[in-house]
Design goal:
It is a single chain. The chain has 286 residues and is of the alpha/beta class. The chain is 44% helix and 11% strand. The chain has helices spanning 2-8, 11-14, 30-44, 59-84, 91-110, 112-128, 136-142, 144-160, 166-178; strands at 181-182, 187-188, 193-195, 201-202, 207-208, 213-215, 219-221, 242-243, 248-249, 254-256, 260-261, 266-267, 272-273, 282-283. The chain has a 5-stranded parallel β-sheet with strand order 1-4-7-10-13. The protein starts with a helix and ends with a strand.
Length: 286
């Protein structure tokens, strides 16, 4: 056993697999992030998540309590994300990061009304797009897209605010919960919905317009990975599709590469698309 411990502790075996933690720095916490998402859902959809006893007389109190708790947890986890990506263990710099984390958490709280407004359009799109839905309440309570898109919209704003690591953890939490994998870097417009949802993948550099609907099993992915002179994939380039407004993509369709699916187009089920589609065109399997 001693030999095994020695082998597992060598620098060679740890290369690329070991994160050096500086004493005193916070670590990302799955439990804390789960509470952040629970609080956010309760704030954004009061009465559906969190305390179901909320009413018009108590809603301001409930939201106020949740906001206060959310700010504290969020500041801690943003700090953890910032520390995770920093190699400098200088204490003065850590104090500077703490101030930055507090500011980002406050900015994120300020964005919640706008997030709720766009989520309202997503609920509307899901309701209008499914004749089996009987109410907005059913959409919010039962449909996996609402949980996935809520996590995504929160994570996307955190990413825009410059938070490392934490946004990706938040969207992966939704991936585990719903089977819907949306990278926080994707850009998604209003009135977005995914019917059923299981197996949907939306890549980091996707741009999705307004009133777009996807079905289960859709992949919006990369066609290939350009390599640098050392043969390594080049990071940060636009490599995923652009879906313009009013596009519908049916189940198990795969759209790959930095191509554009024009406004009002329809992509049929079980097909591959690797070239641009003109606006108001259809591509179906024959």
């Amino acid at each position: 056993m001693t030999q095994t411990v020695d082998e597992l502790s060598t620098p060679e075996s740890l290369e690329g697999l070991f994160h050096q933690h500086n004493d005193g720095n916070p670590l990302p916490s799955g439990k804390a992030l789960e509470e952040i998402i629970s609080l956010s859902r309760a704030i954004l959809f009061p009465g559906y998540f969190g305390k179901s006893s909320v009413n018009t007389r108590t809603i301001r109190y409930h939201i106020g309590v949740n906001i206060e708790r959310l700010h504290k947890l969020l500041a801690d986890q943003v700090m953890a994300g910032l520390c995770f990506s920093v190699k400098d263990d200088d204490n003065a710099y850590i104090v500077e990061l703490q101030d930055k984390a507090e500011g980002i958490a406050a900015q994120m709280i300020e964005r919640l009304p706008r997030i709720r407004s766009i989520l309202a359009t997503d609920v509307e799109a899901a309701y209008n797009g499914d004749p089996a839905a009987v109410s907005y309440g059913e959409i919010i309570s039962c449909y996996p897209v609402i949980k996935a898109i809520t996590n995504y919209r929160i994570a996307h704003e955190l990413l825009v605010l410059g938070v490392p690591l934490i946004p990706r953890i938040i969207t992966e939490m939704a991936h585990s919960e719903t089977g819907i994998d949306i990278h926080p870097g994707a850009q998604i417009g209003h009135h977005f919905t995914i019917d059923h949802g299981t197996g949907v993948v939306i890549g980091a550099t996707c741009i999705i317009g307004n009133n777009v609907k996807l079905y289960q099993g859709v992949t919006l992915g990369a066609k290939s990975f350009p390599l640098d002179q050392d043969g390594n994939p080049i990071k940060g380039i636009a490599r995923h599709p652009i879906l313009e407004d009013n596009v519908i993509v049916y189940s198990n369709a795969t759209i790959l590469g930095r191509i554009t699916i024009g406004e009002g187009s329809v992509v049929g089920a079980n097909i591959w698309v690797t070239e641009d589609m003109e606006p108001k065109t259809k591509k179906v399997k024959k």
